[in-house]
Amino acid sequence: MDGPRQDPRGQLIRPYAVTRGRTEPTRDIAIEAVLVTTPQGRQEAAFAGRDKHMIADLCDGRALSLAEIASHLRVPLGVARVLVADMTGEGMLTLHETSATEGYEERMELLERVLSGLRKL
């Protein structure tokens, strides 16, 4: 006899359930912003919920952009932005934003590199 039948749709969780209905982050974070888990984040990750724990693990020991985090989690960018903004506010992640003095060309080049990296995933 076969084991329990799996739903062919997989585990579907609505994005607003992950963010508890919030659609706006507590701070604006650029898609190319780079994030790294803090020592505090490593300690608190186990108690922070599944998605935050996954983000803390992803960014532990390596810097990832917001876009890469969304891709790894397979969630919409807006959901990742809300979670990451919460985590930076809680001291779990360090945010490294691009310089405000960068011009349009530099930002586009960075976005092209991020897009290229996402395509390789």
UniProtKB/TrEMBL annotation:
Entry-linked Pfam families: DUF742
Name of this chain's protein: DUF742 domain-containing protein
Organism annotation: Natronosporangium hydrolyticum
